[in-house]
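Lab notes, practical 5.
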Amino acid sequence: MSFKGLKPISYGGREVWPLIEGGKGVSATNHASSGAWAAAGGIGTVSAVNADSYDAEGKIIPQVYDQLTRKERHEQLIKYAIDGATAQVKKAYDIAGGNGAININVLWEMGGAQAVLEGVLERTRGLVTGVTCGAGMPYKLAEIAARFDVNYLPIISSARAFRALWKRSYHKVSHLMAAVVYEDPWLAGGHNGLSNAEDPEKPEDPYPRVAALRATMRKEGVSEDVPIVMAGGVWYLRDWEDWIDNPELGQIAFQYGTRPLLTQESPIPQGWKDMLRNLDEGDVLLHRFSPTGFYSSAVRNPFLRNLEARSERQIPYSKVEAGEHTVQLDVGVKGKNFWVTPKDRERARAWVAEGYTDALKTPDDTVIFVSAEERAEIRKDQADCMGCLSHCGFSSWKDHDDYTTGRLADPRSFCIQKTLQDIAHGGDVNQNLAFAGHAAFNFKTDPFYSNNFTPTVKQLVDRILTGD
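Output from the prediction step:
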């Protein structure tokens, strides 16, 4: 028996549990975890964001970017991405054994998103049931889905965003829109869709936001059979009891991103799994350091704390004497046209004395102070850019037209491709970005995980179905 009579839904021509594995990019989800989720009767999600591919012996092929120009490295990245996601889908489909369903997940803001999505769908015809896609406004998702005859599941975080996508594009391909994923911008792990109208410090209750989304969908004539998928902060189904069989919300499904990280099939390294077991409430930080410009949520480890500290060693300057900027900065910079306040000059001198000897300009007419070693790493990472985003604040890359955002590269950010590849393949969990949702503290208190127990995906799905 499932919790409160939670019933299977019809998806892709078969009955599946309304439980979806969140697609975590850059190898935090792979064929083993998503294939097992589908085999357990749910919807497994292969991440098509720079997925791993394998050689003839089954070993992971390292993604080496040896081309000279960013544009050529970007072409390499697209090829790696298509090869990797194709390999993952095929393996996941085999593991699923005809049960559940396999989706793929792409970020619309990733570099070459459209080319990657089309390349993967071309090579996996008949294997992929649907495409989930968020991070930006993926207007073209519907027409791509139509071309390959797959379902699409847009990820949005407000009724307003859904309405804009529906009006502009989705109403033309309404029959393939299999669900709408509401991703809570305050609770979900990874990149979040907080808009300028919303306060990162003031989380809003998801219920009225999802009710407003359903009301908008009804107003636009979307079928009642199209579920809304609640994503972000979902742990125990018993916490969502009043959402199930609720006529105001209509059909509801639930997406799990963080919980499947700690399973036997999860591909993340043991050090990352161990870290998840020890998180307390508040250890996941909603921050804005990502080079995408989006807010995102990750474990507040030394890597993230270092970015926080770097931004705190920051002062505004003018190129001429103006207002309170009455003195010239005499440390960390070359040249004289850095006018700052007397107080800020004293702060800068103190930072230099602590070893943060190099000032780097930001796009906002400020400078930050870093060590010489840090400066060298930032500059190298910027130079090595392989174009993994459509627009990158850290390297000023853009994946079309003239291949530059036209803005100064921002040293307050970081190379996201480098750090996510590193943590997923055994790098130091303290010195890399570790995405997690805000409910991750439950690993420590949920009795299911006591005595270091690590479930299989099947055990996890069965547990979720009990309400726990």
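Observations recorded by the TA: The radius of gyration is 23 Å. The mean pLDDT is 94.
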